[in-house]
Amino acid sequence: MQIRSIEMTEIRLPLVHFFETSFGRTYERRIILVRVEDTEGAEGWGEVTCGEGPGYSDEWTDSAWVTAEKILAPMVVGKEVENATGVWSLMKWARGHRMAKSGIETACWDLEAKKLGVPLWRHLGGVNQVIECGVSIGIQDNVPQLLEKIRVELEAGYKRIKIKISPSWDYDVIKAVRAEFGDILLMGDANSAYTLDDIDLLKSLDEFELMMLEQPLPYDDIIDHAKLQAQIKTPICLDEPIKSPEDARKAIELKSGKIINLKNGRVGGHTQSKLVEKICRENGIPVWCGGMLESGIGRAHNIAISTLEGYTMPGDVSASKRYWHEDVIEPAVEVSPEGTITAPDGPGIGFEIKRDRIEKATVRSVVIK
Fold this sequence. Notes:
Order of helices and strands: EEEHHHHEEHEHEHEHEHEHHEHEEEHE
Mean pLDDT: 96
CATH architecture of the largest domain: Alpha-Beta Barrel
Strand content: 15-25%
Shape: globular
């Protein structure tokens, strides 16, 4: 494989509904799409999944744009590698910036699968073409509004409900959800909103028998999470601190949690996701695919990687219509009445790119040759 050019395009997509976490409220997504083309004219698409600001991670739209354009893309363009796996190594000199790297790397995987004429999910080594889906529901203006949103998603067939929590939006909210919906598969995502000083509150959540409590403590921590996990029954799911296979290994050895949310962009793309999945699977740690409010291109990559054997829990891979009035792929991602998505059989990501939709949403674009 030899990449001749990398095209970066920033698009802006308004969300159907605002999405709020402990970081803040989002109404519109600024998304960087990546299109790679090889020396034979074949193309592949990827997406940089970082947020608009450095709240979730230290990457954000503007930093990723500069890093990808000025540093990462020149490392890849014109270089020859045996296959898509080698693209990660081309960018290894640059420390961090995994979401920017992922946009380029996943596009190369899409390109390679298309040239081979195989679905990306099979090319990655996937074994489960049908994946179970959950939804993530942000902090709402009031509890009745939250309950109504949960009702809508359950009626749509989703297998698992994740609600964002934060101080003052936790115990009583979860209690209300349990009272209304009984023993549904329910989890709470704290996005690092608590510390060990809140241990009594976090212990009290055990009574609700949550599937998991995601990232309750600081974003870069695996030490205090081990202390917390030893004192609560609810399984802790690690998110932000797992950026590499080594991070996963160390967290497992420390017993920092019992589940890992494996976000493709956060670890740097498919090559690294496959390594993290392998480590977790061999150690009996379930993983599931987290979401970053991706467009259909990033969502398609999430579907593909979620077919690997170790992804045993419903992920945040839901229908396009939950987020976008019009997606950038066709057909749009749909969820069955049983709460599942079937990975497409077409080559590469298996979806067609709606170039006219992208053009209308574009605010800037650059080609690195």
